[in-house]
Amino acid sequence: MENQKTALITGGTSGIGKELAKLFAKDKYNLIIVARDQAELDSTAAELGSDDVKITTIAKDLSDMEQAKALCSEITEQIDVLVNDAGQGVYGLFTENDLERELGIIHLNVCATVILTKHFLKEMVNRGNGKILNLGSVAGKLPGPWQAVYHATKAFVLSFTTAVREEVKDSGVTLTALMPGVTDTDFFNKAGMNDSKAVQDKDAMADPAEVAKEGYDALMAGRDRVIAGWKNSAEVHAANLMPDSTVAHQLYEQQKRVTKQ
């Protein structure tokens, strides 16, 4: 295990992050999994643990910038793969949502991604190898009323990943953006989005294991980005042909609250 590669995964106790952790463990990567809840971390470690893989858990709230910086300082192992998966959203009209909640989302989705990427990318570039997977979303290509701040953070992640990838293209390090659509995770429940029209059809939601596999394969192949699922890819390509105002109106209708009978 001492000679194995190590993957650091934030938000690795549920959803796409947990499924990615399973894939890395299957390929004999040692894991450092970061999440807020120690009990969930312990449960995930017990589920993934084996004689072939070392699993380290670290409880941090990465929406707190000091804790995000502290995480970088605490990790002394060589990180071969960084997965910035931790992220949150909040559902509702921008004028009605709580400001502190939205600032916390920006801190987590944007600032923590920048902090961790800067720290570990420097180390990777100095070594001449490494991989980073940033969890974007098709939301990053679509202005999203009812989730205005979340969609904007994912636009940042995509732009940031693409730009930094170009900067280090000759270094031996690759950055990849995974862009899922509506996926069957706890994201929507935590975002208070269960009343949205967009999540009423549970059967239409993507399987997080399938999304993770698409992202994992793209990461290992060194690709710049992958839109998970052909329907999501078609939606993004169609949106590229329309004015942003038209796309925003369509998303407003798709994501508005279901009318109670």
Automatic annotation (TrEMBL):
InterPro entries recorded: NAD(P)-bd_dom_sf, SDR_fam
Gene Ontology CC terms, in alphabetical order: membrane
One Gene Ontology term of the molecular function aspect: oxidoreductase activity
Listed Gene3D superfamilies: NAD(P)-binding Rossmann-like Domain
Entry keyword set: Oxidoreductase
Coiled coil: none
Entry similarity comment: Belongs to the short-chain dehydrogenases/reductases (SDR) family.
Name assigned to this protein: SDR family oxidoreductase
Lineage, opening ranks: Bacteria, Pseudomonadati, Bacteroidota, Sphingobacteriia, Sphingobacteriales
